[in-house]
Write a structure and sequence with these properties.
This protein is α+β, with helices and mostly antiparallel strands. The chain contains 17 helices and 13 strands. It has two domains: about 5-260, Metalloenzyme, LuxS/M16 peptidase-like (Cytochrome Bc1 Complex, Chain A, domain 1), CATH 3.30.830; about 285-495, 2-Layer Sandwich (Cytochrome Bc1 Complex, Chain A, domain 1). Helix content is about 40%, strand content about 20%. It has helices at about 45-55, 100-105, 115-125, 150-160, 165-185, 190-200, 215-220, 220-230, 250-260, 310-325, 330-340, 370-385, 390-405, 410-425, 430-440, 445-455, 465-475; strands spanning about 40, 55-60, 65-70, 75-85, 130-135, 135-145, 240-245, 285-290, 295-305, 345-350, 355-365, 460-465, 490-495. Strands 1-2-3-7-4-6-5 form a seven-stranded mixed beta sheet, sandwiched between helices. α10 (about 310-325) packs across α16.
Length: about 500
Amino acid sequence: MEAMVMREMRKGPGPGRRRPRALFSHLVPPLVMLPLFLLSLLSPVSSWAQARWGQLSRTVLSNGLTLIVQEYRQVPLARLLLLLPGGASLEGSGKAGLAYMTAELLLKGTTQRNARQIAEEIDRLGGDLSASASYDYCAVTLEVLSSDLGRGLDLMMDCLLHPSFPAQELERKRSEALAAISRSQEEPEAIAEKRFRSLLYGSHPYGSPLGGTRDSLTAITREDVLSFYRQTFWPDQAILVAVGDFRAEEMRAELEARFSSWSRGGSALPLLSTAPPPRLQGRRVVVVDKPDVTQARILMGNSGPPRDTPHFFPLSLANAVLGRMGFSSRLMDRLRSREGLTYHVESYFSMGKAGGSFVIETSTRTEKVGSAISAILEEVRSFREKGLRAEELTKAKTYRKGIYYIALQSMESLVAQLAEIEFYGLPKDLIESYRERVDRVSLEEANEAARQFFPSEDLLIVILGNASPIEDQLRDPEGRGWLHDLAEVKIEKFERE
């Protein structure tokens, strides 16, 4: 769901993401189809949340669509997010980029409007209508003045229900996507992240490039796009979140009237695989040789837990201490403040429905690659073995609570968080109880998370840079201690697609 309130935990499973990142990270639990009538449930809201935002309601329509409606009176806007499970993970072999292309083309023509008319209509409203795809979902977002919501919904539903996927628009988007691949091959960060993702996830769906490859994009046909749309763009298991300056009951009635007649017209939605990504055993180092880069790019990590892990709060606090609190984190303190090896280093967990990854990333001068990797591994090993200090945990709790509730001041983040809660089956009171859940994490729980989820021995290390001097550092028997434990080292030449 690719800009979300939990950005510091990273949208989408693993690197390879673009900034701004996804809405959150991935999929919705199955919903029970209800016969004939609607089941309406008023979700509990804390007193402070009710006072700030107003009423929240949750409704499941007879077609399986879940409606979540939240009043938000601070600005005269309305924002809707429609989430449809079944993203790039359902593309199939050789079809990388199909979900992305389908989402891109959704707003490029209907049976009643062409692409220009759609763009002009939303521009006249001063609003925004967009569609996107990630590994476990496709999403459609609408934001307009609340007074113009009716016209905005007319346009959104026309694109959703009657897309024409014009052949000329497919060719235009294909050209744009191929050009984006060409540009990305000039960006060291993008090159390293793409290779890291491929090596980490292997044949798992998360290992496929979301934007496709030259070969897969060239092969995608209009029939492929139509088939993917018919397979995934249906209400059963979908989520619609509406937040804005309106009365919740009136908005719920409006959305029920508009969406309750939407029904499945294609084949059954395949079950999204929840098999976790493979976990690397031992250490593996891959150096991607690109001599013209000015600095070496380093990524290291392994597969990680899914978003609904019961260890979310302990590991997020532990990770804040290791590499997410800027200059207060151990990695930044060691590599930048004390040793001057890098301008920035960070660690993060990227969590999807099936799983995700733990990643540490940085850039450094070519001659300092060995020193940087050695310092990182020493810090992670010490972190696992000795754990957090009590004062570090206290700082991490303050940090996590602060960024969470500051982020929730924006309508966009509130919409994303409500969708994430439903998508992952997280506690319905997460917003109101977040502070308490953070505060009750003990030092013992945080240290157990550090031992369990922060690998120092089982690691994939990808280095993009000038391989010759980097290889000299890797082979230096008098060099850093981490070199003696490497199970595999591979040098490969960077090749353009």
